[in-house]
């Protein structure tokens, strides 16, 4: 290649890099492709083009550019990191990890890549390796938000509440953006531990920033359920149903809460709203319990039979039917229901 051609490639590569940094991705692609026509093996051009394609979410094209660099130089750190990132974009964490590990052999203090490896292991359900790389990252950068969040998520999934809280609270203390997700996750941990007042403190903080956050709204309702205050549980859960009219399980859950409060008409409306979304065994059994409490035993039996039409051996439906028949004095029908319960 002549000196003039080499100089042209260098200038085009610099121009492509400037365009990339300014977010002009399509223009950067054109410039890099022009440079590639002159020198198809130039690692700066190929890596730059890989970066452009990665930003454009063209991950397979991106990976091909980095792979071409690595065929000539398998220690090129830009291509190693980029090849891993491309596989990450292709949702191939297992294929991404070896590229990043080779990268870390050369650039061993890159905490960002450690976090990416940890995230990949977490996706692969390898918690031990994920924790190892999150912790390595935190040695280098103790308050890295992605490492703390990732490590906290691993511990949260393991129900290791103390360690999860340590990560999340450390992150929240340093995070000036008041992360709503963190607040709800911390609330979830305290709720799981039945520390309802502490949980609600965090849900309320989240709702001050995002009044329609359904995770925080659900958490508030569930905390009041845990405190046996079903009136307030219904109040908070209804706010979710205003936003999510197709949330079938919540229609039924609120129906059950209303039934416990003897607000029968409202409970029936909620069970029917659930059934408008799709068949729901628990909504039908809720209707059966309402009818039973109102003394309409035939209607109660009818709803149980509706449930059994879809799942003829369902134990809960058969047990509910037997109980209702006992209350109604339908002795033979009660025994028949018990005889149908799978042993």
Automatic annotation (TrEMBL):
This is Uncharacterized protein. Pfam families: TPR_1, TPR_11, TPR_16, TPR_2, TPR_8. PROSITE patterns: TPR (PS50005), TPR_REGION (PS50293). The keyword Chloroplast does not apply. Keywords: Repeat, TPR repeat.
